[in-house]
C-alpha cells in the first residue's frame, strides 16, 4: 500500500501573546498564538518550540531504534526511505497487518515554520486539533475517518515532522495513539538544537 504524506510549511518571523487552550479529548493544554505581527512581518500562528531538537543530518529511517519500531508494532526491516529537496520520508509495515502501515516525513533544513502552513490551511481539513507531543506543539489535521491519523509535530521552530497512520479501515478508540508515541520517541532520540 502506498502512503501519501502531506507536509508543508509557511514563512514566519513574529511571535505574539499567548493563551492556554484545551482541545477536548486531545493531549494537555496547549498555547495558542494570536497573530499580531510587527510591521512587514508575516503572522506566526503556531507557538514557538521551547526545547527545540535537531533532525538535520539524521536519515528518516534512523530516527527510531529497531526496538522502538517493534514496540510500536512495525517491522524494522520493511523501512522504505525517500529523500527529495525539502523533505525526507520513511515508512514501515505493520507486524500484524500488511494493509496497516505508518509513515513519517521530516523537514529539517528550512527557512519555513514547521506548523504555520497547517494552521493557514485549517479550513481545508475535516479535523483540525492543536495538541502537544512530548512538550512540542503539534496538530492533528486530516480528512481521515476514525481509523487513521495525520499528526504534524514541530521539532524546532523551523523543523517539523508529520506522521500518518492508517489502521486498515478498522475504527480505533484513539487513531493518533501510534503517531503520538512515535513522535515522542523521535523527540527523545534527537539531539538538542544548538
TrEMBL record:
Residues 1-21 form the signal peptide. Residues 32-59 are annotated as: Disordered. The keyword Signal applies. Keywords: Signal. The keyword Transport does not apply. InterPro entries: DUF3558. This is DUF3558 domain-containing protein. It comes from Pseudonocardia hydrocarbonoxydans.
